[in-house]
Amino acid sequence: MTAARAPHFVRSLERGLAVIRAFDADHPELTLSEVARACDLTRAAARRFLLTLADLGYVHAGGRTFRLTPRVLELGYSYLAGFSLAQIAEPHLEQLVERTRESSSLCVLDGDEIVYVARVPARRIMTAAITVGTRFPAHVTSVGRVILAHLPQEQRESAISRADLRPLTPRTIVSAGLLRAELDRVRDQGYAVVDQELEEGLRSVAAPVRDRDGEVVAAVNIPVHASRNTVASVRRDLLPHLLDTVAGIEADLRMAKGATGAAGAAGVTGRGRAAAPDTGTHRSSSSPRPPAPRP
């Protein structure tokens, strides 16, 4: 049964966005019937939405199939362009990748999913095709668990109750009680390690990024192949670099916000350093950052 919508809700906009989201890496081109089926629309309705999107330049119609055009990137760019945290974090991620020779990403929490907002890949072929905008369920990722662990208690319990605890691999946590215990542990230790729960052969470590007020607003991760790195080596060799990187991002966030605040107090206007982000994503309660573990 469809949940009741608020009086302001525009159902046609929801359906139009659903048509855009029907296209993905596995389905770059779709027929009219496939779009209608994916979006639970009639063929006539799907055709109207597709042709409208084509008129606006967001969809290309070629014979029997449709595909998105590069203009769709405009829809996400407005968010990223004003997201100063991603801009501040990127040079730090680049340095982290240079030191570790592993990829690294900055993610935020959006509902029950994490979203990649900045990413620096390592110079090697990776099996996972992850880009800015990629989403995963928060509860099975290291970045998601770091952010969930630092949510206020009521919000964290709500997230646990909504989590789809189906096994993605034989190692996936599928019990609410075990997930709750793991989030407690993550909060206590200040970082998360996920061992092949999202995908076989993929391990990941993540640490939270706090703003000037100590609130967790994002997380940075390092994913690695299980064949090259044990859980022990991830903690020993990668975690100290990750914590140093996060500390650098947080220091720049404090400087950016401080500079913006000082300029505002002095009546200065114009374009300067990026301000600390107001992302509209989940902000969570603070806790002290643990010291980097020693080998």
Topology:
Elements: H1 11-21, E1 29-31, H2 32-39, H3 43-56, E2 59-62, E3 65-68, H4 73-81, H5 84-100, E4 104-110, E5 113-120, E6 135-137, H6 142-149, H7 153-162, H8 176-189, E7 192-195, E8 202-210, E9 216-225, H9 231-265
Antiparallel strand pairs: 1-3, 2-3, 4-5, 4-9, 5-6, 7-8, 8-9
How does this model look, in words?
This protein is 43% helix and 18% strand. A hairpin with a 2-residue loop joins strand 4 and strand 5 (113-120). It is built from 9 helices and 9 strands. The termini are far apart. It has helices at residues 11-21, 32-39, 43-56, 73-81, 84-100, 142-149, 153-162, 176-189, 231-265, and strands at residues 29-31, 59-62, 65-68, 104-110, 113-120, 135-137, 192-195, 202-210, 216-225. Strands 6-5-4-9-8-7 form a 6-stranded antiparallel beta sheet, sandwiched between helices. It has 2 domains: 11-72, Arc Repressor Mutant, subunit A (Orthogonal Bundle), CATH 1.10.10; 82-265, GAF domain (Beta-Lactamase), CATH 3.30.450.40.
